[in-house]
Design brief:
The protein is an alpha/beta fold and about 375 residues long. The chain is built from 17 helices and 12 strands. A hairpin with a 2-residue loop joins strand 4 and strand 5. Helix 7 (about 210-215) runs antiparallel to helix 11.
Length: about 375
């Protein structure tokens, strides 16, 4: 009787498994709306994202200026910190990464630990934002939000948490308005841009920012996304979709994957003048750590950041190299600076299983010790 060689038999078994996963995966894709969409905790659509998925934690719109909004999240703990936290996300991509789904939500974790969380939603850039400047975002809306929260709670200062580019904006804000910031928590935040550890930093030194902004006006989000994907072309463009087939048979894992894909490609256009200056002053001039950056005619001196600082960065970050984030400690004036690092990438800081159980508790504990 003819028998298949072992290796051919193994290959046939692998193929049959692949085919079965693919068949089940196609069935799951056909009904993905039923799996993926819906709201947790009987939450109605918040209206702040294009497709409100089941990860959206309840929040209330408390302040608005045009398309820019300030939300306050519904409290989930009996004992709440008396000093609220304002989260400032980047202009790139959407803040929904912080609340992707119930079991991957830094915001929900912070709420469960008694933090009183506010968050800025920058909205989607359009032609009216073409000439928005860093002054408009930092001296304008961030400062307005901080003042609104201070007035609501009758406090002199609040806790400020900034993410990525939003962390850079927050560092500038904390240096200009130190009396309004009780604690400062930057997460995966670029500070020292003069490094060759990150491919984006190398590329940006040669960007013709003037040509790009003068040609596009607002720089398309799709263009920005393409640049980020080129940092790891095989991993981000090919490998992850091959791996997707392995998890397609599991409806929940497939929904998790697609939820992440939805976030990745939900990329607002970048306001031209703000991006122009961000590239030229930071990536090319490294003016923030040199003490040469000005905002509204004032020099931004990081030594004015004298409040407690918890600097959180990712060891495997390809967007914000660890060396860029770690540089903050030697440039601020605070005597209370702590670092917290995880062996994850930029996005993994917010969705990885390695961070879900410990990141928010460590932030909440650090804050509690300083209240």
């Amino acid at each position: 009787m003819f028998t298949f060689p072992d290796k051919i038999k193994e290959s046939l078994e692998d193929f049959n498994t692949f085919a079965a996963n693919l068949k089940k995966g196609v069935e799951n894709l056909a009904s993905i709306d039923e799996i993926m969409v819906g709201h947790s905790d009987h939450h109605e659509s918040c209206g702040s994202c294009r497709k409100c998925l089941r990860g959206c934690t309840e929040k209330e719109l408390v302040y608005k200026d045009g398309k820019r909004k300030l939300y306050r999240y519904k409290q989930r703990a009996k004992k709440v910190c008396h000093v609220p936290m304002l989260i400032v996300y980047a202009l790139v991509n959407r803040y929904t990464m912080l609340d992707l789904q119930p079991n991957r939500s830094m915001i929900r974790n912070l709420l469960d630990l008694g933090q009183d969380v506010y968050l800025i939603d920058w909205g989607y850039t359009d032609r009216m934002d073409r000439f928005m400047t860093m002054e408009d975002y930092i001296d304008g809306f961030i400062n307005d939000c901080v003042d609104f929260i201070r007035a609501q709670h009758q406090l002199d200062a609040i806790n400020l948490l900034g993410v990525c580019q939003g962390g850079t904006f927050s560092a500038i804000y904390a240096a200009l308005y130190p009396e309004k910031v009780k604690t400062f928590i930057p997460i995966v935040t670029p500070i020292d841009f003069d490094t060759k550890d990150g491919l984006l930093n190398v590329w940006a030194t040669s960007f013709d920012a003037d040509l790009m902004v003068d040609s596009y006006g607002n720089v398309p989000g799709e263009l920005m996304n393409s640049a980020y994907m080129l940092l790891q072309p095989f991993t981000l463009s090919v490998h992850k979709y091959i791996n997707m087939v392995q998890i397609m048979e599991d409806a929940n894992k497939l929904a998790d994957f697609l939820r992440m894909e939805t976030w990745i490609f939900d990329s607002p256009d970048q306001p031209g003048e703000t991006l122009r200056r961000f590239i030229k002053d930071f990536y090319q001039g490294n003016k923030l750590v040199k003490g040469e950056f000005t905002l509204g005619g004032r020099t931004v001196d990081l030594k004015n950041i004298t409040m407690p600082v918890l600097n959180i960065y990712a060891e495997l970050d390809t967007l914000v190299p660890p060396v860029s984030a770690k540089a903050l400690e030697k440039h601020v004036g605070s005597k209370d600076v702590q670092e917290l690092t995880y062996p994850v990438g930029h996005i993994g800081m917010f969705v990885s299983g390695k961070t879900q159980k410990t990141l928010a508790p460590k932030i909440a504990e650090w804050i509690s010790e300083r209240m």
